[in-house]
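Archive record
______________

***
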Amino acid sequence: MPAGVAAKLPEILKICERMSAEHDLTALLDLVAREAARLLHAERATIFLLDAGRQELWSKVALGSDEILRFDARLGIAGAVALSGRTVRTADAYNDARFYDGIDARTGYRTRSLVAVPLRRPDGEIRGVFEVLNKKGGAFTAPDEEVLQALATHAAAALETAQLVGDLQRDRVQLEQQNSQLWREVEGRFATQAIVGSSDRIQNLVRMMERIRDSAVTVLITGESGTGKELVARGIHYTSPRARQPFVALNCAALPETLLESELFGIEKGVATGVERRVGHFERATGGTLFLDEIGDLSLTAQAKILRALQERVIERLGGRQTIPVDVRVISATNRDLEGEIAKGRFREDLFYRLRVIHLHTPALRDIRQDIPLLASHFLDRCCREMGKEPLKFSAGAVRRLADAAWPGNVRQLENEVQRLAVCARRKVIGEEEVLEGAAAAPAGRPSEGNLPEAVADLERRLIEAALQECAHNQVQAAKKLGLSRQGLINKMKRYRIATVR
């Protein structure tokens, strides 16, 4: 150990302990500079940090000051040390050709003597310069160099840690701000105010959502495909006390019976060869909301297991032996007549009443025609924002045609049509002639005789048959044309007994 370091080792160790405990960069720079000046009986000490990207050295002008001094990393004795990595000691700075007096000119301080050592990372890379100025009662000595170098080694490590902590804190603040902004956007998007419509049916629906949002009761949402059942479910969740907890959605019709149980309740490792442990939707939704879409398509076996989970508030993973408590609000949805399914023995009556503590119905678009202009304008504004286009408007004729059209795909089909119009628009005002005949207008010909539900069913059946014919019975394309999901189209084909062509 160098003699100069050994003589002041206890003091150096105390300074190093204080450096290790300080993680604020500004406070650490002040601490190191102040203690180095005291230990070496100097008037002043400065740490210059290297900004490699800008090829500059920077430092605070004086202790306690917020003013930052920056200069070219090639200038002065500090620059020479940063470039060469070698220590410099001089007893007469102004007679040293390497000295840069521009800093003294700016600060009003006069440098007489100095010693400067490089600050190195653990890998040897130079990250700055540690400099002490004006030895009291004489010139700096070789032992002073040794002490300063010992301090510089510990200071470099402490500065590295402080900068890392500062970066992490800034990242955390930024992430918290981004997270808060995203939550505001999500909650705003799914708030009840986002459900567009001034008709009595929509307003009654919104009022009921607001009344039940703070409770944990189960909710059954009924309505045709494309009427916004999941939007209602999300609206209830994101305006409830569970809003910051998970919203987990499962389409019961989209999964085969063999996978449904493991998706709902999870599966333990080793149940079958190569099977890993997996958490099910009930566990994923703990603390939040589980949305079971197309609940009417569940088998009686799956219905029985969901009923048990709702009654006992516990589940068992497939292949597991432990019961797992779950705190989940269940919201389910269907486009089926569940009471009719009960009469046919295809749906459990006890599960129906367990799910239907609160019943909400999303009206078909044909039943809220007065809301079509509002909905179309809402979709158009949103589409323009998302595409970065200038705002567009509908002509009076286009609005009239949209409002008079038959929408078997309901709101989803209307939204798809508005998106198409926005993408294809050549002018700022969308005209009546741009609204597609096939997508929006009712088919020619007189509907079948009978009451309104029968006429609507006949219209739906003919539109589906026409779309399938036009798309060569490609169900994906036909569903897209009608504004339906593929499963929604399949359900309607089953309902109207429309044959599948293979």
